[in-house]
Design goal:
With about 110 residues, the chain is of the alpha/beta class. The protein has one domain (about 1-100). The chain is built from 2 helices and 6 strands. Helix 1 links the parallel strand 1 and strand 2.
Length: about 110
């Protein structure tokens, strides 16, 4: 089965990040073709069980967040602090312009 796992956040840390990594790993090891879409800049540092990882474009290196933290190479900003127009542009950019893939190219 071909599976697309859309995770709107980074892959490190806790909660849904851990769950998304576990799902992709188990589905891949179960013989499924899995693609994980996330904001993660370095997906190769996580065990995704052979799933292909696609990082979406983050215009201006801005990372929309709900919880403030430090993110290497990115500028976190609360989602609610973006204008409606900017949120709309981010939604379009995030769903329509993949910028990198691994372990194989898109």
């Amino acid at each position: 089965m071909r599976i697309l796992l859309w995770h709107g956040y980074l892959l490190g840390g806790t909660g849904s990040n851990v769950y998304s990594r576990a799902l992709s790993r188990e589905w891949s090891r179960g013989g499924h073709e899995v693609v994980v879409v996330s904001q993660e800049r370095a997906p190769e540092q996580y065990d995704l069980g052979g799933a292909q990882a696609v990082a979406v474009d983050l215009p201006g290196r801005l990372l929309p967040v709900f919880v403030m933290d430090r993110y290497e190479g990115l500028e976190p900003k609360f989602l609610q602090d973006f204008s409606e127009a900017k949120r709309t542009r981010l939604r379009f950019a995030r769903c329509c312009r993949p910028i990198s893939c691994s372990p194989t190219t898109c």
